[in-house]
Amino acid sequence: MKFDVVTKDSLRSFVSKHRLPMVVEFTQESAQKIFSGDLKVHLILFVNKTKPDAQVLIKMLQDAAPKYHGKVSLCVISGQIVHWTLW
Question: What is the Cα–Cα distance from 3 to 68, expressed in whole angstroms?
Answer without folding.
Answer: 25
